Amino acid sequence: MDELLEQFLLEGRDLVAQASDDFAALRRRPDDAGAVDSAFRAMHTLKGSVAIFAMMPAERALHAAETLLETARTRGGAIGIEALDGLVACLDQVDRWIDDMEAFGALPQDAAPIADRLVSRLAGHTPGPETADAAAMSDGAIWADLIAERHPSIVAAADTVLTAFRYSPSADCFFQGEDPLAIAMAVPELLSLDVLPAGGEWPARGDIEPFACISVLEGISAAGPDKVRSSFRLVPDRVEVTTIGAGDAAARSSTGTRDSKGGDILRVPSARIDAMADGLGELIVAVNAVAGLTRDAARIDRSLAASVQAVQAKLEQVTGRLHGELSAVRAVTLENMVRRLPRLVREIADGLGKKVSFNVQGDELEVDKQIADGLFEPLLHLLRNAIDHGAEPSDSRTAAGKTADCTITLRFLRSGDSIEVVLSDDGAGIDPRRIREAAVDRALLPRADVDVLSDAEALRLIFSPGFSTAHTVTSVSGRGVGMDAVKAAIERLRGTLAVESAVGEGTTFRIRLQAGALTTPLLLVHVGAERYGVALDQIVETARLGEGALQAVGGGRACVLRGRTVPVVSLGALLNTGEPDDPLARVLITQAGGDRVAVRVDRFGERFNAFVRPPVGMLAAVPGVTGSALMGDGSVLLVLDLPELLA
């Protein structure tokens, strides 16, 4: 991909996300001047970016949106709901066109007529009441920032505060003996001067009145404000003067070349970061091998063992520091992953004729890039189902005493080293009775088994392959795929998924994931002559039970832990390696289907961090295996997925 286009795609999507946030703020507070100003800047910068490429329809649409927002800035007042809907529609379309540029390198053939419709839609709105003051002058901080954005090199190079001015001559100034250009050129220490159309756009050549001034003059001077004002002493009511900080606008307008603290940013392909992560995994394996050498050396020579142990400690220190730095490099905020969801929610809701209010909270959290990338598809599936199955028509909602719009909220919460993703809606909820009937109709379970399920167990059937309650197949749902794909995607990320619902009140999905994905803390367990790894985030606790602690219950066994009866399952039996014969029971307590289960093993090994590789080839077809890790002695350790083994 062309480097310039790649840079545009990154920066363009950042600007789309910023404007989307601003429009969401304006929907809550239509008179939020800060949000209007921020949205204007985003659309203005985006218009300049698309102009570099063959995206004339996008440029025209953005110019119309920019004009509407500029009017709102200068006149004040609230932006109406129809105008805001038009701005959102414009932004959504530009977002689609950015996707087209990435996929095809050009806009689709229907881009021009779509842009015409957007321009017409935006042209009919004039936000806010016009006042004489607003029409004559704009806010000083706003126009000054725009001047600085046009001349970032001048502002960035200055080591002192500069003076910006905006001179708005009257239309009949020529008849009063004024020469606006000569007056502006006389400003001391002039660094820049721009002549701009007073109405925002230059009129057509045939519409120009030759004896009327239609210009505004804006500039930057290194002289102080008082010296600049003195140049306009004959027209003091026609000039605005303010100061701009050295480098301020350049820092604001820079998109991806410097960070918020002024440090340089180097864009590196993610594949190179992934290769570094692979190298770190091999280094961790080597460090683990040194630990074995230390034990061997202790049996031969104590002084040699001490030397090896010192080297081991140094290697562990350096590896730990490298792990932390690389984890920080791979850490990304969830904002980039989430920013496409609002547009997709609007498109899905519009296609189904439903009204949906979508809110996102906590997307500033940082997670490993692998987690952020892997979350998008399952969240999109959940949102589709929330809109299709959960959101009721507006008339049904109002009849039930609800708001006309179904509210869907996506929240990201941090809990220690984990994050919790909560997607909730206030829609119709999931009826366990209907779930049971659908399970029987689709031959997923026999009637006898379905009737004994609790409501919570019935709800978990929605994650079964081929399950669907839809009576017809649509572009959104009804094919029996989606929720099982969600479960599989979350499990690939070593996460857990739970669902809660109440009929008529709504549904909540909870996803719990590790924030970091670079290495995985494992517990080594032994079953007979074999050893396996189990991720610590799948283990609630470990316990050693005395003789007689295991009791026969029905056709299985159980134990009592902390006053609760917990079923006991032998890992050897699950893996077909035989039952342990030790009267002392060592168990891992894990969650399976929402309930606690004790998994019996022969003995516990060490806890260590490992680079777990996803299963490939024949290993990918083995149930209950989430990946493999290379041990220090060169052997391969299979990492088990306890919830899948117990399913």
Q: Pairing-aware structural class of the strands and helices?
A: alpha+beta
Percent range for β-strand residues: 15-25%
Radius of gyration: 32 Å
On the 0-100 scale, what is the average pLDDT?
82
Report strand order across the widest sheet. Answer: 14-18-19-17-16-15
Shape: globular
Q: What summary fits the major beta sheet?
A: 6 strands, mixed
Can you count the helices?
23
- The separation of the N and C termini measures 44 Å
The helix content is 40-55%
- The residue ranges in which pLDDT falls below 50 over 5 or more consecutive positions are 129-140, 247-263
Describe it for me?
This protein starts with a helix and ends with a helix. The longest helix is centred in the middle third of the chain and has 29 residues, at 270-298. The strands form 5 sheets. The chain has a 6-stranded mixed sheet with strand order 14-18-19-17-16-15. The chain is α+β, with helices and mostly antiparallel strands. It has 23 helices and 22 strands.
Compile the SSE list and pairings.
Layout (H helix, E strand, L loop, with lengths): L2 H26 L4 H18 L5 H20 L5 H24 L6 H13 L8 H5 L3 H11 L1 H6 L4 E6 L12 H6 L4 E8 L17 E7 L3 H7 L7 E6 L3 H6 L16 H29 L3 H29 E3 L1 H4 L2 H12 L3 E6 L4 E3 H22 L3 H6 L6 E10 L2 E8 L6 H10 L5 H5 L3 H5 L23 H10 L3 E7 L3 E9 L5 E8 L2 E6 L5 E5 L5 E3 L2 E6 L2 E7 H4 L10 E8 L2 E7 L1 E8 L14 E6 L5 E5 L1 H5 L1
Parallel strand pairs: 6-8, 13-22, 17-19
Antiparallel strand pairs: 1-3, 1-4, 2-3, 5-7, 8-9, 9-11, 10-11, 12-13, 12-20, 14-18, 15-16, 16-17, 18-19, 21-22
Helix pairs in contact: 1-2, 1-4, 2-3, 3-4, 3-5, 4-5, 12-13, 15-16, 16-21
